Amino acid sequence: MKAEVRQRWQSRSLCGKLGLPLKEEPFTLHDVYVADEVFFTGTAAEVIAVREVDGRTIGLGQAGPVTLRLLAEFRRLVETDGVRAF
């Protein structure tokens, strides 16, 4: 499975497990500016909060409750289901 496909599947799985709604759709820069919180997911980034875009603070300028829940569950999953590489 390609990394981007695996990450998308993992994000969907985590949201479902935590009972968080997941919507994948195009969005505008204005949507980002006015969001309560924004985060990226990725193989290397895992789950990372976006604090600022174009000098504008997003939400409170820190990881919000959804981001923190996803990150905590992701880390728990990696610790329990991951295969140690070294």
From TrEMBL:
<comment type="similarity">
    <text>Belongs to the class-IV pyridoxal-phosphate-dependent aminotransferase family.</text>
</comment>
<dbReference type="GO" id="GO:0019752">
    <property type="term" value="P:carboxylic acid metabolic process"/>
</dbReference>
<protein>
    <recommendedName>
        <fullName>Branched-chain amino acid aminotransferase</fullName>
    </recommendedName>
</protein>
<dbReference type="InterPro" id="IPR050571">
    <property type="entry name" value="Class-IV_PLP-Dep_Aminotrnsfr"/>
</dbReference>
<keyword id="KW-0663">Pyridoxal phosphate</keyword>
<dbReference type="InterPro" id="IPR043132">
    <property type="entry name" value="BCAT-like_C"/>
</dbReference>
<dbReference type="GO" id="GO:0003824">
    <property type="term" value="F:catalytic activity"/>
</dbReference>
<dbReference type="GO" id="GO:0005829">
    <property type="term" value="C:cytosol"/>
</dbReference>
<dbReference type="InterPro" id="IPR036038">
    <property type="entry name" value="Aminotransferase-like"/>
</dbReference>
